[in-house]
Write a structure and sequence with these properties.
Layout (H helix, E strand, L loop, with lengths): L2 H10 L11 H11 L6 H42 L3 E5 L6 H9 L4 E16 L2 E10 L1 H6 L1 H4 L2 E4 L10 E4 H7 L6 E6 L4 E2 L2 E2 L2 E11 L4 H6 E5 H7 L8 E6 L5 H12 L3 E5 H4 L1 H39 L1 H9 L4 H32 L1 H12 L6 H4 L10 H27 L3 H5 L3
Parallel strand pairs: 3-10, 5-9
Antiparallel strand pairs: 1-11, 1-12, 2-3, 2-6, 2-11, 4-9, 5-10, 6-9, 7-8
Length: 433
Amino acid sequence: MSASETVAGHVESPAAPTTRPFAPFEWLVALRYLRARRKEGFISVIAGFSFIGIMLGVATLIIVMAVMNGFRQELFDKMLGLNGHVVVHSVGQFKDYDAVSERIANVPDVKHALPLVEGQVLASTPLGSTGALVRGLREKDLKSLKAISKNVHFGTLDGFDKNPGIAIGSRMANTLNVKVGDSVSILTPRGASTPLGTAPRIKRYPVVAIFEIGMSEYDASIMFMPLNEAQIYFNQPDSVTVLEVVLKSPDEVAELAPKILEAGGPSIYVTDWRQRNATFFSALQVERNVMFLILTLIVLVAALNIISGLKMLVKDKARDIAILRTMGATRGSVMRIFLIAGATIGVTGTLAGLALGVLVCVNIDHIRWFVSWLTDTELFPAELYYLSELPAEMDSGETASVVIMALTLSVLASVYPAWRASRLDPVEALRYE
């Protein structure tokens, strides 16, 4: 009997010993193959690049998704913390606002119904000028807006109704170069009616409070005035512009809007935060989905590196595979050995990426400050990104989906090279040995 026949006979023998799947020896051989010797260093380098690629891909995906979630949530909280969740308009002049606001405030799950006078003005001082949106509110209503009352840095809102004055954002204060106690001239075209038309109205108000909610657009453009003073200034002595309704949960606006409409009476109509900000939040959602798809390609490319690395490993280990087969290893055992080798790269890379992503997300703002200091540039300027700090909010479900996706891609990338290894013919592999 020839050597070839002996080998072939041994491989095909029904008496060949079998082992249970993923036996210790399969793990031992697989992990040994990952620790390449000096002459196999190139294979080890490819495995290292695959590991680094998956780690960076997973970490980048987690970090970017967390930052975009935090960005969206911060904008959501600040925009809805300053503006009502539901805005109630009147068909005519809104003169019965006290009665309507009381009825709406009694609707279950409604926190506040705030009468409000709004108007565009030009705010100026000898050192600067800027456009501004005046919002006239009662003191108790202004204090109920925690985004404002908890972020007053200078001055106070106490006695806001009694002493005519204004509360302005920190960026507006910087633009006008004013501090608490200084006066600001406010000009509006909605003044007194004369035989020659409506005359502009200008009046000076002292600054009684300076706030900073952390959203640059609002800090630079909004000022608050007592409701009764705003009614006089905008020539609306007996009416308001709108009622802003604050809900206990903004997500329940669809269920509560009809109840608010019913409680308010037939002369009103309502809009909610979804309608007013639909374009903005839709754009954020589209951007978030596109970024997820783009960054997923990084993980996919890293997974493809596993295929090339394992293919080279199979080619290099052809003699070893043949010897294992002649010693009784089944095709399933060989396939599992290389599947373990490839999956190990993917699993360790994914877990390392998860740890790196979490670490960066927890320290994201410190990292931003460090990079800004190192490069002497301002990263994520508030004027462009609206927020004064870089938020990161990890979603457990989203993070789990990233990890599962990376693990799945890694395992799938290992299947084909492992299958090819199991189909290797030991006779051909040992023919010239």
